[in-house]
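Trying the structure run again after the queue cleared.
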Amino acid sequence: MQHRTAPRAIPFLAFLLAACFLSAGAGSAAAAAPALNLHGYGLKIFRVESALYPFVHVYIRTFDQDMEPLVNLNRMNIGLMVRGRVYDPAKKQYLIQPLRNRPEAVRTVLVIDTARTMAGPRFEAALRAAARFIDAKRPQDQVAIVALADNPDGYAIVSNFERDYGALGRRLADLHADTSASRLYDAVAAAMELTAATGPGGDSLSGSDYVVSTSVVVFSDGHAGDSALSRSDLMTRISGLSVPIPIYALGFGPDKNRDLRNLQALARNSFGKYYRIGRGASSITRSIEDIQNILLSDYVVTFRAYVPVDGERYPLKVGFEYPTGSGKMRYDSAFFETMEPPTLPQILAAQQKLDQAIPALADSNPFLGNPYTISSR
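Done. Tokens:
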């Protein structure tokens, strides 16, 4: 597999990440259904980070009716609301950037179905698809591998989170479709649990160790009849997550295979996507490219808050107008914390860079004014 060169980060953001690692779990988005609507567009807030307060970063994923990400969003069609009041985009107190060109990492668990029902060409195709996914990742992104196994758990962690292309490829090459039990649901549940674990370098002040989203990619024929965990139980776990873990499922096998519906259900319930893999290699390539594109098409909204530090949580909303000029806004809600970061050199440098990018307003009023409402200011 070919090693890829890391994309260059936007200069002032190179400093931003240094402090965010100190509170990796702070201000996570509240559990909520994706902001779906009748026009087929929506968004989901995956994470809120206020470790550089008064600067707050909101990580969002957008989608259309086919669960494909929206492109070319900018400050003029992104709306921000804090404590019920709308930020005025003309005052330039927030900005939006694509995750693709930033140094933050994404984390993915590959679930490989090694049951005997997968033996033969479909298993070979599944391994090729997994290898292609690894080869297409950015150098900072982390991948773990979980495979079905004939042991009391029904699965084995083949690789914990790893960035090295070669190491991941060697572990894939050791897998064979020789497992007698098909405990797919148990393996998917284990993958979800693994996404919450600390990967290598979790305490580092390196941008490549700061993980902003996690996903599961399943390569299977959908057969899960030997699982200790039922599909209903797994669905309940997925629905109850405070932060979504999307499942992208690649289904191998004939169209008449009813087990493939299991994969469709997992993907749909988890805010993910299902892919039917045909006989040709082209369908594998298209599917992997689409998943990678979704994972890297998130946006990061950075805004300057004017709420005094009191350690409390305050509501925010992020929305977008799409298509531009349509007047139709879609919102999702979350919370951010007002906390004073420690005065470490890395934090002060990051805040200084953000202060240059988003200078404070003299009147501390970033909001639009609506003459029909009563303002607290």
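The mean pLDDT is 84. Worth checking whether this holds up in the mutant runs.
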